[in-house]
Amino acid sequence: MTETAGAPITYESAGVDIEAGDRAVELMKKWVGKAQRPESLGGLGGFAGLFDVSALKRYERPLLASATDGVGTKVAVAQAMDVHDTIGHDLVAMVVDDLVVCGAEPLFMTDYICVGKVRPERVAAIVKGIAEGCVLAGCALVGGETAEHPGLLGEDEYDVAGAGTGVVEADRLLGADRVRSGDAVIAMASSGLHSNGYSLVRKVFLERAGWALDREVPEFGRTLGEELLEPTRIYSLDCLALARTAEVHAYSHITGGGLAANLARVVPDGLRATVDRGTWAPAPVFGTVAELGSVARPDLERTLNMGVGMMAIVPADSVDVALATCADRGLDAWVAGEVTEREGDEPVVLTGDYAS
Length: 356
Known about the structure:
With about 350 residues, the protein is α+β, with helices and mostly antiparallel strands. It is built from 11 helices and 14 strands. It catalyses: 2-formamido-N(1)-(5-O-phospho-beta-D-ribosyl)acetamidine + ATP = 5-amino-1-(5-phospho-beta-D-ribosyl)imidazole + ADP + phosphate + H(+). This is Phosphoribosylformylglycinamidine cyclo-ligase.
């Protein structure tokens, strides 16, 4: 047996502070309590989140939809700015807006927060953002996990991930099989960069241009850091409302891969969606990334949302109602293109130049 000298090793001396974790739970309780639905059961502290699904009896054939996601390297900006109550909002958006694409109503979410060192106030701020995002999405936050990983992450480093579940009636399931030639493509404005492409964005602004996060940028009307931390728009309730008031054939959440790649996922074989760039002007941040980084348009469009966070494909006779519904909800939306018979191999074609 090998003998070693020194003080006894405890979990705390190894880098894990159980008391700090308990304090984080206490601080987050009030926020989790705000993100509930009538079907939520139990409370914070259980081994599993509970959700009463007896309400699904009203469905003829309920289909459960699930999605999971994170927020990528946007967390590095939050850490650098020491602002942590917006990242959770981003996390909810990335999950629930994937769920609603098929027409599913988001029901509940769980989260996972991995930290190098538990700082209770910081963890509570992250959960605050998640809870507020769930309220905006109309879903419940039924549970989560905070894990402390000393040695794997630095003391001020963390990452977040989440998973969500939604439900849709089988005969109201949206997708490519509903899309027809003659349909209109409606674009819904993004709130900014959302949570994709930050490896490129950070490299351009922070490394290539050497800009500080507290730099005031007149084109943005705020600091660089504030622009980069603008929360991702949550579209779920807007999309559900739109599907109730107008006929919708498909939605496309514009995330990693950009507009063309994501829209192509809901365009069936034999059809093509043509999108006119001239129907909107992207926010200044997109052009600034291109200019400072000498980023070619194909790379830019494959990486960033270019001002469009969600798209809806609707029959031509539903356009007016769809646009009116978006306007009533304060969501900027416009007809950006149409679906036609496909000529060639590309399911999505972008034409023209962006408006200025």
